[in-house]
Protein backbone atom coordinates (compact mmCIF):
# COMPACT_ATOMS: atom_id res chain seq x y z
CA UNK A 1 0.00 0.00 0.00
CA UNK A 2 1.25 3.49 -0.78
CA UNK A 3 1.77 5.55 2.34
CA UNK A 4 2.08 9.03 0.83
CA UNK A 5 -0.92 11.25 1.55
CA UNK A 6 -1.82 13.74 -1.15
CA UNK A 7 -2.95 17.19 0.04
CA UNK A 8 -5.76 17.45 -2.48
CA UNK A 9 -7.52 14.45 -4.01
CA UNK A 10 -5.59 13.48 -7.10
CA UNK A 11 -7.16 12.69 -10.42
CA UNK A 12 -5.89 9.45 -11.89
CA UNK A 13 -5.82 9.27 -15.66
CA UNK A 14 -5.63 6.03 -17.58
CA UNK A 15 -2.88 5.64 -20.15
CA UNK A 16 -5.01 6.71 -23.13
CA UNK A 17 -6.05 9.96 -21.43
CA UNK A 18 -2.54 10.50 -20.15
CA UNK A 19 -1.06 10.11 -23.63
CA UNK A 20 -3.67 12.49 -25.03
CA UNK A 21 -2.88 15.01 -22.28
CA UNK A 22 0.83 14.76 -22.99
CA UNK A 23 0.29 15.32 -26.72
CA UNK A 24 -1.99 18.26 -25.95
CA UNK A 25 0.67 19.74 -23.63
CA UNK A 26 3.27 19.64 -26.39
CA UNK A 27 0.93 21.18 -28.93
CA UNK A 28 -0.13 23.88 -26.44
CA UNK A 29 3.52 24.79 -25.91
CA UNK A 30 4.18 24.83 -29.65
CA UNK A 31 4.55 28.47 -30.68
CA UNK A 32 5.27 27.58 -34.29
CA UNK A 33 8.99 28.29 -34.28
CA UNK A 34 9.67 26.10 -31.25
CA UNK A 35 8.11 24.13 -28.44
CA UNK A 36 8.73 26.09 -25.28
CA UNK A 37 9.87 24.40 -22.09
CA UNK A 38 6.64 25.46 -20.34
CA UNK A 39 3.82 27.87 -21.13
CA UNK A 40 4.43 30.73 -18.71
CA UNK A 41 7.48 30.18 -16.58
CA UNK A 42 9.77 29.11 -19.45
CA UNK A 43 8.46 30.60 -22.72
CA UNK A 44 11.62 29.79 -24.73
CA UNK A 45 13.71 26.81 -25.81
CA UNK A 46 16.04 25.24 -23.24
CA UNK A 47 18.85 23.05 -24.50
CA UNK A 48 18.42 19.86 -22.53
CA UNK A 49 14.63 20.24 -22.36
CA UNK A 50 14.59 20.29 -26.16
CA UNK A 51 16.60 17.10 -26.40
CA UNK A 52 13.98 15.35 -24.28
CA UNK A 53 11.04 17.13 -25.94
CA UNK A 54 12.12 15.92 -29.36
CA UNK A 55 11.97 12.31 -28.13
CA UNK A 56 8.30 12.61 -27.15
CA UNK A 57 7.55 14.44 -30.38
CA UNK A 58 9.12 11.67 -32.43
CA UNK A 59 6.31 9.38 -31.31
CA UNK A 60 3.74 11.85 -32.60
CA UNK A 61 5.41 13.31 -35.64
CA UNK A 62 9.04 12.63 -36.51
CA UNK A 63 9.25 15.63 -38.84
CA UNK A 64 8.35 17.93 -35.98
CA UNK A 65 10.89 16.21 -33.72
CA UNK A 66 13.56 16.68 -36.36
CA UNK A 67 12.62 20.36 -36.79
CA UNK A 68 12.83 20.90 -33.06
CA UNK A 69 16.33 19.52 -32.74
CA UNK A 70 17.35 21.38 -35.90
CA UNK A 71 16.17 24.64 -34.37
CA UNK A 72 18.38 24.06 -31.35
CA UNK A 73 21.34 22.99 -33.47
CA UNK A 74 20.77 26.01 -35.70
CA UNK A 75 21.49 28.22 -32.68
CA UNK A 76 24.85 26.57 -32.07
CA UNK A 77 27.62 29.11 -31.57
CA UNK A 78 30.31 29.28 -34.23
CA UNK A 79 32.79 27.84 -31.73
CA UNK A 80 30.59 24.75 -31.19
CA UNK A 81 28.80 25.62 -27.93
CA UNK A 82 25.12 24.71 -27.73
CA UNK A 83 23.55 27.53 -25.73
CA UNK A 84 21.34 26.79 -22.74
CA UNK A 85 18.48 29.02 -23.97
CA UNK A 86 17.37 29.84 -27.50
CA UNK A 87 15.03 32.80 -27.13
CA UNK A 88 11.73 33.02 -28.92
CA UNK A 89 10.62 36.45 -30.10
CA UNK A 90 8.37 36.77 -27.05
CA UNK A 91 9.54 38.04 -23.68
CA UNK A 92 8.38 36.86 -20.31
CA UNK A 93 11.56 35.41 -18.87
CA UNK A 94 14.36 36.95 -16.90
CA UNK A 95 17.25 37.04 -17.68
CA UNK A 96 16.23 37.58 -21.30
CA UNK A 97 18.39 38.28 -24.37
CA UNK A 98 19.06 41.92 -23.46
CA UNK A 99 20.51 40.99 -20.11
CA UNK A 100 22.70 38.27 -21.63
CA UNK A 101 23.81 40.48 -24.53
CA UNK A 102 25.70 37.60 -26.14
CA UNK A 103 25.48 38.72 -29.78
CA UNK A 104 26.81 42.18 -28.86
CA UNK A 105 29.70 40.78 -26.85
CA UNK A 106 30.88 37.66 -28.65
CA UNK A 107 31.40 37.20 -32.40
CA UNK A 108 30.68 33.46 -32.15
CA UNK A 109 27.16 33.99 -30.80
CA UNK A 110 24.36 34.07 -33.36
CA UNK A 111 22.52 37.33 -33.86
CA UNK A 112 19.38 35.46 -34.71
CA UNK A 113 18.02 33.63 -32.85
CA UNK A 114 19.24 35.28 -29.66
CA UNK A 115 20.75 32.94 -27.09
CA UNK A 116 22.08 32.82 -23.55
CA UNK A 117 25.85 32.53 -23.00
CA UNK A 118 26.18 29.28 -21.03
CA UNK A 119 25.30 25.66 -21.78
CA UNK A 120 23.41 22.71 -20.28
CA UNK A 121 24.03 18.96 -19.89
CA UNK A 122 25.00 17.23 -23.17
CA UNK A 123 22.12 14.78 -23.53
CA UNK A 124 21.47 15.54 -27.20
CA UNK A 125 23.15 12.47 -28.64
CA UNK A 126 20.82 10.33 -26.52
CA UNK A 127 17.89 12.16 -28.11
CA UNK A 128 19.33 11.67 -31.58
CA UNK A 129 19.65 7.93 -30.96
CA UNK A 130 16.10 7.71 -29.68
CA UNK A 131 14.62 9.79 -32.52
CA UNK A 132 16.47 7.82 -35.18
CA UNK A 133 15.28 4.53 -33.68
CA UNK A 134 11.68 5.71 -33.37
CA UNK A 135 11.68 7.22 -36.88
CA UNK A 136 13.06 4.03 -38.40
CA UNK A 137 10.43 1.92 -36.66
CA UNK A 138 7.66 4.11 -37.99
CA UNK A 139 9.22 4.60 -41.42
CA UNK A 140 9.74 8.37 -41.16
CA UNK A 141 12.72 9.23 -43.30
CA UNK A 142 13.41 12.77 -42.03
CA UNK A 143 15.36 11.20 -39.19
CA UNK A 144 18.06 10.14 -41.68
CA UNK A 145 18.57 13.81 -42.62
CA UNK A 146 18.82 14.71 -38.96
CA UNK A 147 21.40 11.98 -38.45
CA UNK A 148 23.51 13.08 -41.42
CA UNK A 149 23.37 16.81 -40.65
CA UNK A 150 23.05 16.75 -36.89
CA UNK A 151 25.87 14.32 -36.18
CA UNK A 152 28.73 16.67 -37.19
CA UNK A 153 27.16 19.46 -35.15
CA UNK A 154 26.92 17.26 -32.08
CA UNK A 155 30.51 16.18 -32.63
CA UNK A 156 31.57 19.85 -32.57
CA UNK A 157 29.52 20.38 -29.41
CA UNK A 158 31.32 17.53 -27.65
CA UNK A 159 34.63 18.82 -28.96
CA UNK A 160 33.85 22.27 -27.52
CA UNK A 161 33.21 20.72 -24.11
CA UNK A 162 36.51 18.86 -24.20
CA UNK A 163 38.43 21.96 -25.35
CA UNK A 164 36.89 24.50 -23.06
CA UNK A 165 35.37 22.73 -20.10
CA UNK A 166 38.00 20.27 -18.98
CA UNK A 167 40.43 22.66 -17.30
CA UNK A 168 42.61 19.91 -15.80
CA UNK A 169 42.52 17.69 -18.87
CA UNK A 170 41.37 14.73 -16.76
CA UNK A 171 37.92 14.18 -18.23
CA UNK A 172 35.93 15.87 -15.43
CA UNK A 173 33.85 18.57 -17.13
CA UNK A 174 33.45 21.86 -15.32
CA UNK A 175 30.49 24.18 -15.11
CA UNK A 176 30.70 27.94 -14.62
CA UNK A 177 27.14 28.46 -13.38
CA UNK A 178 24.71 26.26 -11.44
CA UNK A 179 22.29 26.62 -14.36
CA UNK A 180 24.74 24.68 -16.52
CA UNK A 181 24.13 21.62 -14.36
CA UNK A 182 20.39 21.78 -15.04
CA UNK A 183 19.99 21.40 -11.25
CA UNK A 184 20.03 25.11 -10.45
CA UNK A 185 19.89 25.40 -6.68
CA UNK A 186 20.86 21.87 -5.70
CA UNK A 187 22.67 21.75 -2.34
CA UNK A 188 25.60 20.50 -4.43
CA UNK A 189 26.31 24.14 -5.24
CA UNK A 190 25.81 25.71 -1.80
CA UNK A 191 29.50 25.76 -0.92
CA UNK A 192 30.79 27.07 -4.25
CA UNK A 193 27.97 29.64 -4.38
CA UNK A 194 28.79 30.81 -0.84
CA UNK A 195 32.12 32.00 -2.25
CA UNK A 196 30.41 34.04 -4.99
CA UNK A 197 30.14 37.62 -3.78
CA UNK A 198 27.86 39.73 -5.92
CA UNK A 199 29.57 43.04 -6.63
CA UNK A 200 27.99 46.31 -5.52
CA UNK A 201 27.87 47.21 -9.22
CA UNK A 202 25.55 44.30 -10.12
CA UNK A 203 23.06 46.03 -12.42
CA UNK A 204 19.55 46.04 -10.93
CA UNK A 205 17.04 43.47 -12.12
CA UNK A 206 13.52 42.19 -11.51
CA UNK A 207 12.72 38.50 -11.35
CA UNK A 208 9.77 37.23 -13.36
CA UNK A 209 9.63 33.68 -11.99
CA UNK A 210 8.18 34.77 -8.65
CA UNK A 211 5.09 36.20 -10.33
CA UNK A 212 4.43 32.85 -11.93
CA UNK A 213 4.88 30.35 -9.10
CA UNK A 214 2.48 31.15 -6.26
CA UNK A 215 4.51 29.50 -3.50
CA UNK A 216 7.88 31.28 -3.57
CA UNK A 217 9.35 28.51 -1.44
CA UNK A 218 9.28 26.31 -4.56
CA UNK A 219 11.79 28.61 -6.32
CA UNK A 220 15.36 29.72 -5.51
CA UNK A 221 15.84 32.61 -3.03
CA UNK A 222 16.74 36.25 -3.87
CA UNK A 223 20.30 35.79 -2.62
CA UNK A 224 20.64 32.79 -4.91
CA UNK A 225 19.39 34.92 -7.79
CA UNK A 226 21.89 37.71 -7.00
CA UNK A 227 24.64 35.14 -7.34
CA UNK A 228 23.20 33.71 -10.56
CA UNK A 229 23.11 37.22 -12.03
CA UNK A 230 26.54 38.13 -10.75
CA UNK A 231 28.08 35.15 -12.55
CA UNK A 232 26.45 36.31 -15.77
CA UNK A 233 27.86 39.79 -15.14
CA UNK A 234 31.35 38.30 -14.78
CA UNK A 235 30.94 36.51 -18.10
CA UNK A 236 29.69 39.63 -19.81
CA UNK A 237 32.82 41.43 -18.66
CA UNK A 238 35.06 38.95 -20.50
CA UNK A 239 32.79 38.92 -23.55
CA UNK A 240 31.79 35.27 -23.02
CA UNK A 241 35.22 34.17 -24.19
CA UNK A 242 35.11 30.47 -23.17
CA UNK A 243 38.65 30.24 -21.83
CA UNK A 244 38.54 33.56 -20.05
CA UNK A 245 35.26 32.59 -18.45
CA UNK A 246 36.86 29.45 -17.04
CA UNK A 247 39.84 31.50 -15.83
CA UNK A 248 37.85 34.27 -14.19
CA UNK A 249 34.44 32.96 -13.08
CA UNK A 250 33.95 32.93 -9.29
CA UNK A 251 32.21 29.59 -9.77
CA UNK A 252 34.04 26.67 -11.36
CA UNK A 253 33.02 23.16 -10.38
CA UNK A 254 33.74 19.75 -11.91
CA UNK A 255 30.19 18.39 -12.28
CA UNK A 256 30.10 14.63 -11.92
CA UNK A 257 26.58 14.29 -13.33
CA UNK A 258 27.34 16.34 -16.45
CA UNK A 259 30.55 14.37 -16.85
CA UNK A 260 28.69 11.06 -16.67
CA UNK A 261 26.14 12.27 -19.21
CA UNK A 262 28.97 13.38 -21.45
CA UNK A 263 30.62 9.96 -21.23
CA UNK A 264 27.33 8.22 -21.96
CA UNK A 265 26.38 10.58 -24.80
CA UNK A 266 29.85 10.38 -26.37
CA UNK A 267 29.54 6.59 -26.56
CA UNK A 268 26.08 6.91 -28.06
CA UNK A 269 27.31 9.46 -30.60
CA UNK A 270 30.29 7.27 -31.48
CA UNK A 271 28.02 4.31 -32.17
CA UNK A 272 25.67 6.41 -34.27
CA UNK A 273 28.67 7.75 -36.18
CA UNK A 274 30.07 4.28 -36.76
CA UNK A 275 26.74 3.00 -38.00
CA UNK A 276 26.27 5.90 -40.39
CA UNK A 277 29.78 6.14 -41.86
CA UNK A 278 31.04 9.27 -40.11
CA UNK A 279 34.84 9.81 -40.10
CA UNK A 280 36.56 6.98 -38.20
CA UNK A 281 38.99 9.36 -36.50
CA UNK A 282 36.12 11.33 -34.99
CA UNK A 283 34.35 8.18 -33.88
CA UNK A 284 37.45 6.95 -32.07
CA UNK A 285 38.05 10.38 -30.51
CA UNK A 286 34.53 10.24 -29.09
CA UNK A 287 35.29 6.84 -27.58
CA UNK A 288 38.50 8.22 -26.06
CA UNK A 289 36.63 11.17 -24.55
CA UNK A 290 34.00 8.80 -23.19
CA UNK A 291 36.64 6.57 -21.60
CA UNK A 292 38.44 9.51 -20.02
CA UNK A 293 35.26 10.98 -18.58
CA UNK A 294 34.07 7.58 -17.36
CA UNK A 295 37.36 7.21 -15.52
CA UNK A 296 36.92 10.71 -14.04
CA UNK A 297 33.47 9.74 -12.76
CA UNK A 298 34.91 6.57 -11.20
CA UNK A 299 37.65 8.65 -9.53
CA UNK A 300 34.98 10.95 -8.12
CA UNK A 301 33.30 7.99 -6.41
CA UNK A 302 33.77 8.02 -2.65
CA UNK A 303 33.49 4.42 -1.38
CA UNK A 304 32.96 5.57 2.22
CA UNK A 305 30.00 7.78 1.38
CA UNK A 306 28.93 5.39 -1.37
CA UNK A 307 28.29 8.26 -3.79
CA UNK A 308 30.20 10.15 -6.48
CA UNK A 309 31.26 13.74 -5.75
CA UNK A 310 31.65 17.03 -7.56
CA UNK A 311 34.94 18.87 -7.35
CA UNK A 312 35.18 22.57 -6.52
CA UNK A 313 37.99 23.76 -8.77
CA UNK A 314 38.15 27.18 -7.13
CA UNK A 315 38.46 25.86 -3.58
CA UNK A 316 40.39 22.79 -4.76
CA UNK A 317 38.27 20.29 -2.81
CA UNK A 318 35.71 17.53 -3.22
CA UNK A 319 32.11 18.35 -2.45
CA UNK A 320 30.58 15.51 -0.49
CA UNK A 321 26.95 16.57 -0.67
CA UNK A 322 24.48 13.71 -0.91
CA UNK A 323 22.13 14.22 -3.85
CA UNK A 324 20.80 12.24 -6.79
CA UNK A 325 23.87 13.36 -8.77
CA UNK A 326 25.96 11.01 -6.61
CA UNK A 327 24.53 8.12 -8.64
CA UNK A 328 26.18 9.40 -11.79
CA UNK A 329 28.37 6.29 -12.22
CA UNK A 330 25.22 4.26 -12.85
CA UNK A 331 24.63 6.30 -16.00
CA UNK A 332 27.98 5.76 -17.64
CA UNK A 333 29.64 2.78 -15.94
CA UNK A 334 33.28 2.70 -14.90
CA UNK A 335 33.05 1.31 -11.36
CA UNK A 336 34.00 -2.27 -10.60
CA UNK A 337 31.13 -4.72 -10.50
CA UNK A 338 30.79 -4.92 -6.72
CA UNK A 339 30.82 -1.14 -6.23
CA UNK A 340 28.33 -0.71 -9.04
CA UNK A 341 25.96 -3.29 -7.59
CA UNK A 342 26.20 -1.60 -4.19
CA UNK A 343 25.44 1.79 -5.74
CA UNK A 344 22.45 0.41 -7.63
CA UNK A 345 21.14 -1.20 -4.44
CA UNK A 346 21.57 2.10 -2.63
CA UNK A 347 19.58 3.93 -5.30
CA UNK A 348 16.75 1.42 -4.98
CA UNK A 349 17.10 1.18 -1.19
CA UNK A 350 15.38 2.92 1.77
CA UNK A 351 17.37 6.16 1.62
CA UNK A 352 16.37 6.82 -1.98
CA UNK A 353 13.83 5.31 -4.37
CA UNK A 354 12.88 2.65 -1.82
CA UNK A 355 12.13 5.12 0.97
CA UNK A 356 8.91 3.82 2.58
CA UNK A 357 7.20 7.23 2.68
CA UNK A 358 7.58 8.08 -0.99
CA UNK A 359 4.44 8.57 -3.05
CA UNK A 360 6.14 6.81 -5.96
CA UNK A 361 9.40 4.88 -5.93
CA UNK A 362 11.55 7.21 -8.01
CA UNK A 363 14.71 8.72 -6.56
CA UNK A 364 14.11 12.23 -5.19
CA UNK A 365 16.68 14.99 -5.79
CA UNK A 366 17.74 14.77 -2.12
CA UNK A 367 17.08 11.83 0.21
CA UNK A 368 14.21 12.27 2.70
CA UNK A 369 16.64 10.96 5.33
CA UNK A 370 19.05 13.84 4.74
CA UNK A 371 18.90 16.94 6.98
CA UNK A 372 19.12 19.06 3.81
CA UNK A 373 15.87 17.53 2.44
CA UNK A 374 13.28 20.20 1.48
CA UNK A 375 10.43 18.35 -0.23
CA UNK A 376 8.90 21.39 -1.97
CA UNK A 377 12.01 23.37 -2.79
CA UNK A 378 13.20 23.04 -6.35
CA UNK A 379 16.28 20.80 -6.60
CA UNK A 380 16.44 20.24 -2.84
CA UNK A 381 14.10 17.28 -2.48
CA UNK A 382 11.33 17.01 -5.12
CA UNK A 383 11.19 14.22 -7.68
CA UNK A 384 11.82 15.06 -11.35
CA UNK A 385 10.26 12.72 -13.93
CA UNK A 386 12.92 13.59 -16.46
CA UNK A 387 15.71 12.48 -14.14
CA UNK A 388 13.88 9.20 -13.53
CA UNK A 389 13.62 8.79 -17.31
CA UNK A 390 17.37 9.33 -17.72
CA UNK A 391 18.20 6.66 -15.17
CA UNK A 392 15.55 4.37 -16.65
CA UNK A 393 16.97 4.77 -20.16
CA UNK A 394 20.53 4.19 -19.00
CA UNK A 395 19.45 1.14 -16.99
CA UNK A 396 17.69 -0.35 -19.99
CA UNK A 397 20.86 0.14 -22.06
CA UNK A 398 22.90 -1.52 -19.38
CA UNK A 399 20.59 -4.54 -19.21
CA UNK A 400 19.09 -3.70 -15.80
CA UNK A 401 15.62 -4.36 -17.09
CA UNK A 402 13.84 -4.93 -13.79
CA UNK A 403 15.03 -1.60 -12.38
CA UNK A 404 14.20 0.24 -15.61
CA UNK A 405 10.70 -1.27 -15.70
CA UNK A 406 10.07 -0.32 -12.08
CA UNK A 407 11.16 3.29 -12.62
CA UNK A 408 8.84 3.53 -15.57
CA UNK A 409 5.82 2.15 -13.69
CA UNK A 410 6.44 4.27 -10.58
CA UNK A 411 7.03 7.46 -12.51
CA UNK A 412 3.88 6.93 -14.57
CA UNK A 413 2.04 6.59 -11.27
CA UNK A 414 3.56 9.87 -10.07
CA UNK A 415 2.43 11.80 -13.13
CA UNK A 416 -0.96 10.18 -13.68
CA UNK A 417 -2.71 13.26 -12.26
CA UNK A 418 -2.22 14.71 -15.75
CA UNK A 419 -0.78 18.08 -14.62
CA UNK A 420 2.60 17.36 -16.26
CA UNK A 421 4.25 19.31 -13.49
CA UNK A 422 7.86 20.39 -13.58
CA UNK A 423 8.52 18.44 -10.36
CA UNK A 424 6.58 16.65 -7.64
CA UNK A 425 6.50 16.54 -3.86
CA UNK A 426 8.14 13.17 -3.27
CA UNK A 427 6.05 12.27 -0.22
CA UNK A 428 2.61 13.42 -1.35
CA UNK A 429 2.81 13.43 -5.14
CA UNK A 430 1.65 17.07 -5.17
CA UNK A 431 2.54 18.77 -8.46
CA UNK A 432 5.01 21.64 -8.00
CA UNK A 433 6.64 24.40 -10.05
CA UNK A 434 5.34 24.89 -13.56
CA UNK A 435 2.42 22.89 -14.96
CA UNK A 436 2.26 21.57 -18.55
CA UNK A 437 6.03 21.30 -18.54
CA UNK A 438 7.01 19.94 -21.95
CA UNK A 439 9.69 17.54 -20.80
CA UNK A 440 7.35 15.87 -18.32
CA UNK A 441 4.87 15.31 -21.16
CA UNK A 442 7.58 13.88 -23.36
CA UNK A 443 8.77 11.42 -20.73
CA UNK A 444 5.20 10.20 -20.42
CA UNK A 445 4.87 9.79 -24.18
CA UNK A 446 8.11 7.88 -24.52
CA UNK A 447 7.23 5.57 -21.68
CA UNK A 448 3.69 4.96 -22.84
CA UNK A 449 4.90 4.16 -26.34
CA UNK A 450 7.55 1.73 -25.20
CA UNK A 451 5.42 -0.47 -22.95
C1 LIG B 1 17.33 28.28 -15.63
C2 LIG B 1 13.70 24.83 -18.20
C3 LIG B 1 14.81 24.87 -17.16
C4 LIG B 1 15.50 23.50 -16.98
C5 LIG B 1 16.42 23.48 -15.77
C6 LIG B 1 15.65 23.97 -14.56
C7 LIG B 1 15.10 25.38 -14.82
C8 LIG B 1 15.95 27.66 -15.39
C9 LIG B 1 15.22 28.48 -14.34
O1 LIG B 1 14.24 25.33 -15.94
O2 LIG B 1 16.17 26.28 -15.01
O3 LIG B 1 17.96 27.67 -16.70
O4 LIG B 1 14.86 29.61 -14.66
O5 LIG B 1 15.01 28.00 -13.22
O6 LIG B 1 16.45 23.94 -13.42
O7 LIG B 1 16.92 22.18 -15.57
O8 LIG B 1 16.22 23.18 -18.12
O9 LIG B 1 12.82 23.78 -17.91
Secondary structure: elements and pairs:
Blueprint: H1 15-28, E1 45-46, H2 47-60, H3 62-74, E2 85-86, H4 97-100, H5 102-105, H6 124-137, H7 142-164, E3 174-175, H8 178-181, H9 190-194, H10 209-212, H11 222-237, H12 242-248, E4 253-254, H13 256-275, H14 280-299, E5 301-302, E6 307-308, E7 310-312, E8 317-319, H15 329-332, H16 337-348, H17 385-397, H18 401-414, E9 423-424, E10 431-432, H19 438-449
Antiparallel strand pairs: 1-2, 3-4, 4-7, 5-6, 7-8, 9-10
The structure holds (2R)-2-(alpha-D-glucopyranosyloxy)-3-hydroxypropanoic acid.
Detailed description of the structure:
The structure is a single chain. This protein has 451 residues and is mainly α. It is 48% helix and 5% strand. It has 19 helices and 10 strands. It has helices spanning 15-28, 47-60, 62-74, 97-100, 102-105, 124-137, 142-164, 178-181, 190-194, 209-212, 222-237, 242-248, 256-275, 280-299, 329-332, 337-348, 385-397, 401-414, 438-449, and strands spanning 45-46, 85-86, 174-175, 253-254, 301-302, 307-308, 310-312, 317-319, 423-424, 431-432. It has a 4-stranded antiparallel beta sheet with strand order 3-4-7-8. The protein has a two-stranded antiparallel sheet with strand order 1-2. Strand 9 (423-424) and strand 10 (431-432) form a beta hairpin. Bound molecules: (2R)-2-(alpha-D-glucopyranosyloxy)-3-hydroxypropanoic acid. (2R)-2-(alpha-D-glucopyranosyloxy)-3-hydroxypropanoic acid binds at residues 37, 42, 46, 48-49, 84, 179, 182, 184, 209.
Amino acid sequence: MRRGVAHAPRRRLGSVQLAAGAAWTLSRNDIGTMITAAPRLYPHMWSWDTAFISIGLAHLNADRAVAELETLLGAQWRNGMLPHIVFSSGGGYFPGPERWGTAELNPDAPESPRTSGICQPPVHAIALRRIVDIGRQTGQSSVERLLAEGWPRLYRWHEWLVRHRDPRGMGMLAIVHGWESGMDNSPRWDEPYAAVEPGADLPPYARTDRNLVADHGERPSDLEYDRYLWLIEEMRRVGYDADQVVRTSSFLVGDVFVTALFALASEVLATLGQESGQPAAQVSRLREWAARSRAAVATAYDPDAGLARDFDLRADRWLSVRTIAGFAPLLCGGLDEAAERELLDRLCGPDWAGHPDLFAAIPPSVSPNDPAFRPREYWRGPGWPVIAWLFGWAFAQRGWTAQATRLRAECLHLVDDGTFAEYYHPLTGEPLGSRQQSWTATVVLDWLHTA
